[in-house]
Give the backbone structure.
Amino acid sequence: MTADWQNLTIGELHPLMRKKEISPVELTREILERIAALDGKLHCYVTVDQQGALAQAREAEKRWADGQATPLTGIPLAIKDLIATRGLRTTCASRSLENYLPPYDATVMEKLRQAGAVILGKVNMDEFAMGSSTENSAFGATLNPWRPDRIPGGSSGGSAAAVAADLCLASLGSDTGGSIRQPASHCGVVGLKPTYGRVSRFGLVAYASSLDQIGPLGKDVTDCALLLEIIAGYDPKDSTSAPVPVPDYVPALKEDIRGLKIAVPREYFLPGMQPEVEQAVRAALATYTALGADLVEVSLPHTEYAVAVYYLIATAEASSNLARYDGVKYGYRNPEATELMDMYYTTRAQGLGAEVRRRIMLGTYALSAGYYEAYYQKASQVRTLIRRDFEEVFRTCQVVATPVAPTTAFRLGEKTDDPLTMYLSDIFTISANLAGIPGISLPCGLDSLGLPIGLQLLARPFDEATLLRAAYAFEQATDFHRLKPTGLKGI
């Protein structure tokens, strides 16, 4: 090929494919070769579908030749391993689903296939999306391409690391409490959590059904906007899908942001957060001022309760959703069990990891008789207050700007024995899921070790257009999204 695809985005590759300077088959083959060379150490992928990807690439070439190409035709993508892919293993990074082959595609997969995308395979994650570091996978931890001794974030760590390491052009992840935005921040890529209901959850293996949302991770804002256009929209197969029109996100990116009011909540700049993170985010806010946006200091007073509320609601829903993994209809079953109750107990103990079991027990306790009103019901009431905080801010401001995480990527194993400290790493992202609003993480700096720092932007429900426009304006004024990981040299 004549082009250096590793330095190109989807938006930049598309015209080269149209001119036949890049072939979908050649591009797919080169990325598969790169996966073979690097992924043995990084562990981004759980399953690589080499034959399927090359077959899809050949089909994409026919679409280009017939004049039926879309902006995603021939573009190699990676899919988080909790999105159902027909005939392709979907494990949720759990022994309980190690050999599960879905008989159907998730709605987002149908849309990607209709667009002619090439699916390289399924990428690693925290088991059942329960984690912030991708260390909870039954198939081993994913490493951060910037520094292999660091976590890539979670639970969509494989999705973010694969994009950062050029093991795909973009990926899909899911976000329940920050699981797209936090790994995007730690890996120096762009990650978008759409509004709850904007993207169909049909075919997404559920963790917490009122919080989960599928979204894209890409090299820049334009690629995420392009992917969102493809996967968004009403789906009658998903009862939580919203019948809201999907705008053309990409053409609207270049609209001026002068006069845009950006809220800066004081609760998101905490004592004890890494000073370099605050400095980078403050510098990003100064960039917005230079671009003509207006910064407004605001308060989101119920933010302090977000972590407690999240870990009651999410675990309660997980307790219900994961009851189906009992060894009866599908998934892992203990072959040595001799009676029904023994089979139930040992199957769940052997098939589910420690963090998943911990959250199921927390949720079961919160829902149990005598505790429901004190815990789950109270958490649901405070969730409403958190949503109303955002509603009040959005009366006068269009965007909220915050850090994504209080620190850059921490060391592998550093927090595995301290679940509460691990949970606090999502303190800045959880509120958006509780409120159901869209959020995006984009690179805004590096710390003294060369680890990426992310800026989080939040917007009104279903106003991804403004969110993306604000993100694009910052991206065009800086070069952080063009930086490449330095940790790959030693692999």
In short: The first strand starts at residue 45 and ends at 48. The mean pLDDT is 96. The two ends are 25 Å apart (CA to CA). The longest helix spans residues 373-393.
